[in-house]
């Protein structure tokens, strides 16, 4: 589950802001239980326990199922992350490009793989040949188990403009047939053929529906990813504001006419859990791959 700093996420924050409900989450992380058993663990009445459970259910953290006359509670979420507003650097001018996830210029993928458009799958699922289907440009979500996809973005920097910082933002996650909320995958980022670093995605999420994922997409397949922001500076690379790798702007050839951006699952990756890219009209962020060149 991914949250942001908005009123839409308040039910989750409120649900977590209670020690008794935190204990319920801890209990349900081990097994599904009925209300009486949870109340016994907590040492409180079933009436109060039900109120706590309903708050957690309304926030999408737990779900209920029927077992005869019993109401069984189960944990629905494996991971919660919070996206803070992006910091602004008003002293720099910006060249910004948005690249649809279907506008890749090179690829090499292995099943499970596929492309999804606003109304249906594009071509046949698990057939890499359809990654060259002309309709791929309409894709809002693509996925593959092994290999890479590569994009190119125009380099609008002029000779008298000095690159101060480069930001790359993308919503992505792992890839598992249908989905698996706990399925780590090492996804490696490249820019202009330079390996920037590897991020381990925790899973391929379908615990809740993506905010923008079209209605035609089944509930039991990838619904959303986690937005990651790479920031490359003169003194290193940061991921979501935290130090990531020592790669700096001086390591990247910025004299080219384009910026090449690659997302890959390396053959020797410890966690080969695939990759899913979410673009405009899919996932929790209604945006394409976003490249920003901050310059002075």
In short:
By secondary structure, the protein is mainly beta. Helix content is 13%, strand content 37%. It is built from 4 helices and 19 strands.
How would you characterize this protein structure?
The structure is a single chain. 13% of the residues lie in helices and 37% in strands. With 296 residues, the protein is mostly beta strands. The protein folds into two domains: 2-75, Arc Repressor Mutant, subunit A, CATH 1.10.10.10; 86-295, Jelly Rolls, CATH 2.60.120. Strands 6, 8, 9, 11, 14, 15, 16, 18 and 19 form a nine-stranded antiparallel beta sheet that branches. The protein has a five-stranded antiparallel beta sheet with strand order 7-10-17-12-13, with no helix packed on it. Helix 1 (10-16) packs antiparallel against helix 4 (46-58). It is globular. It starts with a strand and ends with a strand.
SSE layout:
Blueprint: E1 2-4, H1 10-16, H2 19-28, E2 33-34, H3 35-42, H4 46-58, E3 62-67, E4 70-75, E5 81-83, E6 93-99, E7 106-110, E8 114-116, E9 141-144, E10 146-154, E11 163-173, E12 185-191, E13 194-201, E14 226-233, E15 236-239, E16 242-245, E17 258-265, E18 275-278, E19 289-295
Parallel strand pairs: 1-5
Antiparallel strand pairs: 2-4, 3-4, 6-19, 7-10, 8-9, 9-18, 10-17, 11-14, 11-18, 11-19, 12-13, 12-17, 14-15, 15-16
Helix pairs in contact: 1-4, 3-4
């Amino acid at each position: 589950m991914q949250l942001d700093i908005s009123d839409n996420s308040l039910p989750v924050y409120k649900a977590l802001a209670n020690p008794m409900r935190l204990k319920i989450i801890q209990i349900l992380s081990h097994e599904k239980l009925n209300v009486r058993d949870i109340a016994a663990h907590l040492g409180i009445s079933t009436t109060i326990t039900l109120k706590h459970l309903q708050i957690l259910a309304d926030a999408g953290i737990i779900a209920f199922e029927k077992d005869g006359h019993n109401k069984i509670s189960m944990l629905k979420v494996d991971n919660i992350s919070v996206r803070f507003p992006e910091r602004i650097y008003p002293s720099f001018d910006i060249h910004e490009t948005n690249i649809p996830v279907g506008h890749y210029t090179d690829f090499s993928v292995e099943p499970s793989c596929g492309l999804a458009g606003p109304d249906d799958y594009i071509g046949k699922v698990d057939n890499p040949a359809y990654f060259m289907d002309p309709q791929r440009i309409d894709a809002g979500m693509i996925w593959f188990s092994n290999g890479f996809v590569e994009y190119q973005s125009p380099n609008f920097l002029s000779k008298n403009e000095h690159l101060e910082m480069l930001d790359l933002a993308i919503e992505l996650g792992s890839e598992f047939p249908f989905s698996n909320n706990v399925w780590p995958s090492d996804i490696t980022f490249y820019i202009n053929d330079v390996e920037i670093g590897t991020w381990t995605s925790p899973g391929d999420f379908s615990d809740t529906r993506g905010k923008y994922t079209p209605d035609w997409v089944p509930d039991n397949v990838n619904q959303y990813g986690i937005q990651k922001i790479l920031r490359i500076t003169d003194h290193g690379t940061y991921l979501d504001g935290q130090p990531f790798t020592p790669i700096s702007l001086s390591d990247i050839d910025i004299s080219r006419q384009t910026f090449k951006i690659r997302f890959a699952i390396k053959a020797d990756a410890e966690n080969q859990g695939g990759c899913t890219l979410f673009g405009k009209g899919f996932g929790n962020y209604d945006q394409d791959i976003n490249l920003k060149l901050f310059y002075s």
